[in-house]
Amino acid sequence: MAKPTSRAVSKAATSPKPAKSPKPLAKPARVATPKPKRAPRTERPQPYAGKRFAFFGEFAVWPGYHRSSPAGVAARLGARIVEALDEQVDVVVFGELRGPGRAEAKKLADKLVARPGARLEVLDEATFRDRVRIDLTGKRFAFIGGFDCSPAGLEDGLLTRMVETAGGVVVADLDPTLDYLVVGNRRGPSKIALSNKADKLNEAGATIKKLDESSFLELVRVDRPSTGGELDFAGFLSQLYGSVDEGKLGRALDMLRKDRFKLYTRVDDAHLVGVVRSQSGSGSVYASWLTSEGRYGCAQPDLSECMGLQGTTCKHLLVLVCGLARTGQIPLERALAWIRSARTQEPSKNHELCAETFIQYKGAEAGEVDWRPTETIPEDYYAL
Question: Which residues pair with 55 in a beta bridge?
């Protein structure tokens, strides 16, 4: 019998069976991770809900922390903003600066308010700012670093008075209960270490807000003290910082703290002018002046322009304004209004006024002219 050939042998019998691939392991079931619940959104207070507001004129001062225009803030608080003033408007707000329709709206507002049963409430910008400002009552502030706005730091009391005027308190310790940490523009003891400490406290759950000098001055700027009553000198300075160069005002206050000044001044309802002695020891004097419209200038005896102007009010003029305001020679509100008008203008030259002022000053120094100076006392600027 013939032998089967190799071809006759079954391929299945001679070839090994391929190994079966192992079954893939079953993937573990996913465990759903619960998403953290969001804190319920707190409803924004709507104190002006249903009220119709109209705004006319530009604001001379408006806090940047609102991150919106005055009308935008009113709308956020529930107000309905309208462009025209009529009998249906509940509140009309007038900015200090000019704007489209401001003059006509003021005349109409006077007529509407005079009518029996008038519903219209008229607000100036200071009153509106005060109504919508951040409430700092009981808020805790600490300071680190050196400050352009107050070269003496906490020693002269200015920074503390600003905080207290706004309703807050100044504390020495940096702990989780702190609300605001104010970081000065200049170097200071342990400035970086204390700033890092605040960051670590925030990582652990604290809510400390860091502020630079500009933000701090804007935050505590008030038109009226939180305790009521008239604006005091510390409040005046806090507002003044919103209208002038911070470094120049800081240097002017530093001059007033370090030395006595005899300010030969003339003040009336339209302008102020005076002579300020240089603190450099050179014996130089400057004639500085400011008008109710915000025109200003400063010159040396040869009538050359003061080098410190540089497009804004110089420290000599600020020494004059602060000295007169501190001694009651000019009302605080008037001084603020004039300075606010000046911040939108360039320095001017008035050779006739300056020459006349220097001639009168020399006569007073020689005893030939009866011009009695206002004397400043350094202690008045330490005990604010």
Answer: 93
Is there a contact between 182 and 242 (Cβ–Cβ < 8 Å)?
A: no
In sign, the C-alpha dihedral spanning 208, 212, 217, 218 is negative
pLDDT for 77 equals: 95
Same domain, 320 and 373: yes
**339 is in which domain, residue-wise?**
244-381
97: DSSP letter: B
In sequence order, which residues have a C-beta less than 8 Å from that of residue 212 and are 6 or more positions away? 182, 183, 185
Q: Which residues contact 302 (CB under 8 A, 6 or more apart)?
A: none
Q: Would you say the C-alpha torsion 378, 381, 382, 384 has a positive or negative sign? A: positive
Cα angle vertex 299, ends 295, 302, to 5°? 145
Domains identified in the chain, total number? 3
Inter-CA distances, 322 with 51, 82, 243, 319, Å: 41, 40, 13, 5
CA distance 179 to 8: 96
Tens of pLDDT, residue by residue over 248-296, are 988 898 888 888 888 999 999 999 999 998 876 556 899 999 999 999 9
CATH of the domain at 87: 3.40.50.10190
CA distance 354 to 60: 29
User: Please, which residues bridge with residue 116 across strands?
Assistant: none
Are residues 279 and 161 located together in one domain of the fold? no
Q: How far apart, in Å, are the Cα atoms of 28 and each of 25, 31, 35, 314?
A: 9, 9, 21, 75
pTM for the whole structure: 0.67
| Structure tokens belonging to residue 340 | 């606010």
My answer on whether 284 and 342 are in the same domain is yes
Residues 249 and 368 in one domain: yes
Task: State which of 155-159, 162-166, 204-208 shows the largest mean pLDDT.
Answer: 204-208
Q: Is residue 25 over pLDDT 70?
A: no
CA distance 65 to 67: 5
Residue 8 located in a structural domain:
no
CA distance 384 to 379: 9
Question: Is residue 317 domain-resident?
Answer: yes
Residue 12 placed within a domain: no
CA neighbor of 150 nearest in space, from 166, 165, 164, 161 = 161
- The residue type at 58: E
Residues 210 and 258 in one domain: no
